[in-house]
Amino acid sequence: MVKAGPRMERVGKNGWVFIWPEDAGASKYFDAGVEESEKGNIEEARACFERALSISPWRFDILHDLAFTYRGTSKYGELLHKAVDLALSFFPKKFDFEHDKLEWGFLDNRLFLNTYYSLGLDYLAKLDIDNAVKCFNQILSWNPNDNQGARSVLADIYVKWHEWGKMLELKGLFIDDADPSVMFGSALAFFMLGKKDDANIALKEAIKYHPICAEELLKETHKKPRNISEEYVTVGGADEAYYFWEQQGSASVWHMPKVKEWIENCLK
Q: Are residues 10 and 135 in the same domain?
């Protein structure tokens, strides 16, 4: 039975922040596990994480990292669910999941938000679209500034599943957002709904900020750029265009002849 753990403290009218207990000795094993994981020593990393959890079984963040040592197996999802359930057990009964906030700006909230984001990605990988959408929308509700990029994932889902109304609702939450998935996704939504003037305006605006993304959509083959990094993306760069195509541009709707013709006309 978990006897210790973080508590949550209200900040302002409807904000909350995690308050973490003092380290009981688990962190040195956790840090060692992260180091072993980065070296590719999965068994050693797993042993370190398990040792850390034996000291502080309430550390859902360590359970989250332990899950990644089982990626590709059924235990990966099981451990992510366990980590999220454990974290949620520390939420006060008066926490309002519809209106209360867990902002990214508070560093101690980030471990939970990252854990919840990982669960959403696991749902998505399993094509459990309903639960994936719920996860990412919940993240947007908790942290409207969306420092994690949940809006991008949602935009990609809405395009792939032809949820044009939801795509435009998402755009309405991020009117001035320059994220390529949101910009191109909303332009496509207008186009598919027959709102050609709005579609042209939106697509030309997307092309203004991300011309290489538009060019990538028209390519027959897509090559991963050299020296591409998974840690950062160059705004307006070839790496951004490739990632955009990989996540959203590969959707069949972008390959429709009328859609490609529309892109070509807007690029002129």
A: yes
Partners of residue 8 on adjacent β-strands: 18
Looking at the fold, whether 89 and 197 belong to one and the same domain comes out as no
Average pLDDT over residues 257-268: 96
Residue bearing tokens 């790496």? 239
At 88, the amino acid letter reads L
**Alpha-carbon distance values, 235 to 127, 152, 251, 268 (Å):** 29, 14, 22, 22
Structure tokens at 267: 């690029």
Taking 90 as the threshold, does the pLDDT of residue 165 lie above it?
A: yes
Average pLDDT of the residues in 150-169: 98
The structure tokens listed for 12 are 């302002």
pTM as predicted = 0.93
Cβ partners under 8 Å of residue 136, min gap 6: 117, 120, 150, 151, 153, 154, 157
Structure confidence by residue, pLDDT tens digits, 202-211: 999 999 999 9
Domain boundaries, position 76: 1-146
Here the tokens at position 163 are 């949820």
Give CA angle at 98 (92, 103), nearest 5°.
Answer: 70
Q: Is the pLDDT of residue 235 over 90?
A: no
Q: State whether 124 and 154 are in the same domain.
A: no
Looking at the fold, whether 173 and 237 belong to one and the same domain comes out as yes
